[in-house]
């Protein structure tokens, strides 16, 4: 069994090895399956949103971006967090509300972050990350840095005002930001075609005179290639662009959702293009790895995640003082008095 | 009288109003085909059809605005804001448009719309999905704000809200949706807006609560001679009932799901003090959440909201000493 | 001197006579010039936004729509209010805060309305009228009425989220609404090209799979023709569309603005296509009226507006009780008590 | 010490901070080329250039969100919301994002941004452009809310706000922009957030005011032995100073630009009562606007905000009778 490196930056750097990208995709999948199980069993309270089926985008972000670039994403962010480098311990710790969580357990599933690998706190409000990413890019541009910001939002988020305002602002200022729409076909329980009158979401780029492109989101190489071009463009000062990544949400929207509303056969059709399977075939076809090697990777990930679950379950929740930490109060203000 | 969950009482109220008045219609994210994220509109699409029960895109500004327009044109739209926080992208439509249209049309335009929003902590939804945020809609002449505390109130206030000719915001404690209670349906079950409910008579102290804190206050009051009032409507709140009670008891405690700073209970304490100063036997005070975001970790989240144990202890101390007790976090030396 | 008919519906009906459209365009222009003067002299407090240069759209709305259709527009709404039929007395009364105002003087310049001629209270918040118009259309659709709603917003408003959300919602539901963008080249002091990365604002229709069209806004016939098509489409149940009307704001943004930021020559270039002049020529060319007749109309409007100003100046402000009227309070609520 | 208008004091504060710290940048509608709709950024584009002083499209959600992102990445953005009401389309970014980021990043992310918004009545802008709306930003742990009442406060609080490591909302009374005052510039002119200002000592009654009502309270206090306190920072407000004063005077009046229902003054009255009950000689109370939108007509608008005459009468009655006087509208038999 391979030990998971301890630090997020090391875990990020490890992805330069193509086998590690396969390991990471499996790590996300297995992690998410485990999470779903823990919630289903009632071992974790609250809600969670898993991202099975969207692993290619998660890992492509990690391999394409520099570690000093910045990402805003959504509550469906475990995969991106793990891909960018956050350790399964810090992610699971947060999801389970333990002191080992990335913010000590006060946030939960929707609030992951690690500035060391460029992940801003994940956004629980649909669309909010879009202008915030533009703002990060604004900081880079104003200071003359060649860093890039990437906003990842869902298909459903393209209908909210913040999306529109964020893109327009970025376009006017030619900000170094790439707007990625992870089109996983659903927003909560609504199929995208019931809430959005166009099928090609990248077409909305035209409203802001920026390039728009849609790409197969199940194929890691395809996503990486397209994302790479858009990021390079942004880094070169050529302005923002919009990339629709076509994935599919294999699970329900959140904890309790069985996704009974899916048309018959839809899930199976998409599962036939499971990003992990496609990646596996590609690695074998290219002679990068043998089936046995990949099986072994999968097994080692499975074992490692089982360890993480065990370790985290044995980790305590924070004590009451954690509730009061990290609230800004001006120094001169009198201490909050009696009621 | 039927036993039902709070969320079923809401469905019942919506259905009864939709049957009685064909201008009533519903809009919101996943409220139609899926019956609502919290199942508060289950079955309504089937009965009333897709013109009157509409799933919306994720665009709170868009559909809340559409409700304003539809209301101006004679409909009675009920919109669902899945979590109160989402009104942060659409508050303009409620406070600056809907609440002012009657005034700014010289009384010619009415906006009989209801904004239903789930609020509060207890579900492990984290700090951006667990606030009550009454303050966002406070200080808005022309806007009614109500909060049910049980199934009857959910039924009765929802119907009254739909019947009201101006805009109403219904803040629904998410943690109560699954609670069961006995519900009188029909006209007798309607609770007028602006009327508080005396949940338990008492003579020693008046405890004012709202939404989720009503059951906490009731449980805490068990061994005390406390009068527990469910405010039910927060704006405009029932001064007659509250002042009447405090006139009798001479003591006031507000139990509140809101931070110590900025919470609505200040208004109750302040109004009662200004009006009944000489009738008070002791300082009125508030039992609140601390000035910190709602934390996720279950053991912390459950302490954020005042617990029954804590309320009982605070009120008991208050009655015993006549002094305002310090909140738990100061007792434990914790501050933000 | 012709007397202005007293009721807004009669004033609306009068527009079936082409000469009356010319009269109305002049009425708006002269009214707005007067308003600007009253504010400049300090005779009226607060702020105001006049619409000289945009009269063709104002009158086209009135001649194209049925009186039971509905319009949402902006604080720059005096022209639309007058065109739709509101009397100069009720508009000026409101602007001057007098009891004769359409809402008795508690609203002011930004808050005009007259439900008799389909004008919802004009919107002081940029973009807010867009989803509200969609909502009016929603009421019509739900009840099976063949009425149409028109939203009129400015060029600058196309960058705010409410615009985007309103259009998307209307598209999904195929609502009978026409979204008109009055592109008068400026939003406050900002030229549209400094805030918007595209030049053809109707192109944004494509994001919502609805027809988009841009039309010369200085030519009453051109605006009427285009608007007529879009309204007919909506009325026929074929769904929403977006019409950009290209006008020019002859005045500054509001009361005090001298519009010094305009590029040299720009105003003159646009004034050479003054909608009133174009209309005048068209009527003369078509033999509908002689120059003398039109001169006479202009003079009679001038006299009438002078009378309105005189009358209104002699009209009292409301008394304090007006402040408390028309605030909704539930019957059961205890009367607001002591402080 | 320089004599300048409030709006010039704001320009001076922005300029001094921008000179001292190159991460300070400005965004807003027409704040760059035009120098600001209220001339509160005049000349700054020329001095600091278009990268640091940016005109934005009309998209409050977009640019306030951009400020959050830029602040997370180490800038100190100051955004201008032309009228406070416009935050109704972007409140999410302030209350739900900016104010919580420090907490929800475990202290790793700071959001040192300032949202400046003009507020209040007096300009004839009508009911959708004349509110103060402090309640929108109240009850938000992690968010500081301040309001200047004169040129010095405008200078000093703006600088302190920019230097603060968390988000600050500055509510600037529009009616004061043209007022002149003496301003100490530089480090000595900075007013720490969270500190109230005793504007006038007195021993009979404590009058707490904020923003536009400070000058009203000062004028009204002229023939009274009243201590006038400018709260300056509303969240968190300076309990030490206010409690200290009431401990001395035994009486409290809050003069407030907010409706009777839902206004911030309830918090002052309530907190003082809970903590100093036995030190009070009479009921504390509030002098407020009525529960009605701000009307346009000049004669009405000027009565909506408490006038000097009215405040003087109310306080005088209070001191004479020891009773809370009725507000003018009840005296005149007017209610909504
Ligand atoms: C402003 C706002 N409205 C509604 C929600 C509730 N909500 C959470 S996730 C979600 C669906 C989002 O769909 P999409 O953008 O496609 O992202 P996905 O969940 O598929 O990743 C909704 C409506 C929210 N969090 N914020
Ligand atoms: C949400 C919002 N933001 C800003 C403003 C301030 N404002 C009033 S008019 C205006 C310019 C609008 O430009 P445009 O949409 O082109 O309309 P025009 O004034 O040219 O008719 C602005 C920014 C506002 N009223 N509402
Ligand atoms: Mg989706
Ligand atoms: Mg314009």
Distance between the termini of chain B: 47 Å
Q: Please, how many helices of chain A? A: 11
Q: Spans of chain A with pLDDT under 50 lasting ≥5 residues?
A: 334-339
- Percent strand of chain A equals 5-15%
CATH architecture of chain A: 3-Layer(aba) Sandwich
CATH class type of chain A: Alpha Beta
Mean pLDDT of chain A: 95
- Main beta-sheet strand count, sense and barrel state of chain B: 7 strands, mixed
- Ranges of chain B with pLDDT <50 over ≥5 residues? none
By DSSP, the count of extended strands of chain B is 14
- Secondary-structure class of chain A: alpha/beta
Describe the structure.
The complex is a heterotetramer, with 2 copies of chain A (339 residues) and 2 copies of chain B (336 residues). In chain A, α7 links the parallel β2 (149-154) and β3. Chain A is α/β, with parallel strands linked by helices. Chain A has 11 helices and 7 strands. The longest helix of chain A has 23 residues, at 18-40. Chain A is globular, with a radius of gyration of 20 Å. Chain A has one domain (8-314): Thiamin diphosphate (ThDP)-binding fold, Pyr/PP domains (Rossmann fold), CATH 3.40.50. Residues 334-339 of chain A have low confidence and may be disordered. In chain A, α2 crosses α11 and α3 (55-64) packs parallel to α4. In chain A, the strands form 2 sheets. In chain A, strands 1-2-3-7-6 form a 5-stranded parallel β-sheet, sandwiched between helices. With 336 residues, chain B is α/β, with parallel strands linked by helices. Chain B folds into 2 domains: 2-189, Thiamin diphosphate (ThDP)-binding fold, Pyr/PP domains (Rossmann fold), CATH 3.40.50; 197-331, 3-Layer(aba) Sandwich (Rossmann fold), CATH 3.40.50.920. Helix content of chain B is 37%, strand content 20%. Chain B is built from 12 helices and 14 strands. In chain B, the strands form 3 sheets. Chain B has a 7-stranded mixed β-sheet with strand order 3-2-4-5-7-6-12, sandwiched between helices. In chain B, α7 (212-220) links the parallel β10 (205-209) and β11 (226-230). The radius of gyration of chain B is 20 Å and the shape is globular. The model of chain B has no long low-confidence stretch (mean pLDDT 97). Classes of the chains: A alpha/beta (339), B alpha/beta (336). One magnesium ion binds at residues 154-156, 184, 186-187 of chain C.
């Amino acid at each position: 069994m391979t030990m998971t490196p301890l630090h997020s930056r090391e875990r990020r750097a490890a992805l330069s090895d193509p086998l590690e990208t396969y390991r990471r995709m499996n790590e996300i999948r297995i992690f998410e399956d485990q999470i779903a199980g823990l919630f289903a069993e009632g071992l974790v309270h609250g809600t969670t949103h898993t991202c099975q089926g969207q692993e290619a985008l998660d890992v492509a972000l990690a391999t394409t971006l520099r570690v000093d670039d910045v990402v805003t994403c959504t509550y469906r962010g475990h995969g991106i967090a793990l891909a960018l480098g956050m350790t399964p311990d810090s992610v699971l710790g947060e999801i389970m509300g333990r002191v080992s969580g990335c913010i000590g357990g006060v946030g939960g599933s929707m609030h992951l972050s690690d500035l060391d690998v460029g992940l801003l706190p994940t956004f629980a409000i649909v669309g909010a990350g879009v202008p915030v990413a533009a703002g990060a890019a604004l900081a880079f541009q104003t200071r003359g840095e060649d860093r890039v910001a990437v906003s990842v939002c869902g298909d459903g988020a393209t209908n909210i005002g913040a999306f529109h305002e964020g893109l327009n602002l970025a376009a006017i200022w030619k900000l170094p930001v790439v707007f990625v729409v992870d089109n996983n076909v659903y927003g909560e329980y609504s199929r995208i075609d019931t809430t959005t009158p166009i099928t090609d979401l990248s077409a909305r780029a035209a409203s802001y005179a920026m390039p728009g492109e849609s790409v197969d989101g199940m194929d890691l190489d395809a996503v990486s290639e397209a994302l790479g071009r858009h990021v390079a463009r942004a880094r070169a000062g050529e302005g923002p662009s919009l990339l629709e990544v076509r994935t599919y949400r294999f699970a329900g929207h959140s904890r309790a959702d069985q996704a009974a509303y899916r048309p018959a056969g839809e899930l199976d059709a998409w599962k036939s293009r499971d990003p992990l399977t496609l990646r596996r075939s590609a690695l074998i076809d290219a002679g990068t790895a043998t089936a046995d090697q990949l099986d072994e990777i999968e097994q080692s990930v499975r074992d490692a995640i089982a360890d993480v679950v065990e370790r985290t379950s044995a980790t305590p929740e924070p004590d009451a003082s954690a509730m009061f930490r990290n609230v800004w109060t001006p120094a001169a203000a009198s201490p909050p008095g009696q009621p | 009288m039927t036993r039902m969950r709070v969320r079923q009482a809401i469905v019942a109220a919506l259905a009864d109003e939709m049957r009685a008045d064909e201008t009533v219609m519903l809009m919101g994210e996943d409220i139609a085909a899926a019956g609502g994220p919290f199942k508060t509109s289950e079955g309504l699409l089937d009965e009333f059809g897709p013109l009157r029960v509409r799933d919306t895109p994720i665009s709170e500004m868009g559909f809340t605005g559409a409700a304003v327009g539809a209301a101006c044109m004679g409909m009675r739209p009920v919109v669902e804001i899945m979590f109160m926080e989402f009104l942060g992208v659409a508050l303009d439509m409620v406070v600056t448009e809907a609440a002012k249209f009657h005034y700014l049309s010289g009384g010619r335009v009415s906006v009989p719309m209801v904004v239903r929003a789930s609020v509060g902590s207890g579900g492990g939804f984290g700090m951006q999905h667990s606030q009550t945020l009454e303050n966002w809609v406070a200080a808005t002449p022309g806007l009614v704000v109500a909060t049910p505390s049980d199934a009857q109130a959910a039924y009765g206030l929802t119907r009254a809200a739909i019947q009201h000719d101006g805009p109403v915001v219904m803040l629904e404690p998410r943690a109560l949706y699954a609670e069961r209670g006995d519900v009188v349906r029909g006209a007798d079950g309607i609770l007028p807006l602006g009327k508080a409910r005396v949940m338990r008579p008492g003579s020693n102290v008046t405890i004012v609560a709202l939404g989720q804190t009503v059951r906490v206050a009731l449980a805490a009051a068990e061994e005390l001679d406390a009068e527990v009032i469910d405010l039910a409507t927060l704006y405009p709140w029932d001064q007659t009932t509250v002042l009447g009670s405090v006139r009798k008891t001479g003591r006031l405690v507000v139990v509140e799901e809101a931070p110590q700073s900025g919470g609505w209970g200040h208004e109750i304490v302040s109004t009662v003090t200004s009006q009944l100063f000489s009738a008070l036997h002791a300082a009125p005070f508030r039992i609140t959440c601390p000035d910190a975001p709602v934390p996720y970790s279950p053991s912390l989240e459950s302490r954020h909201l005042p617990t029954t144990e804590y309320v009982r202890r605070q009120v008991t101390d208050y009655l015993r000493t006549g002094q305002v007790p310090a909140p738990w976090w100061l007792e434990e030396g914790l501050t933000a």
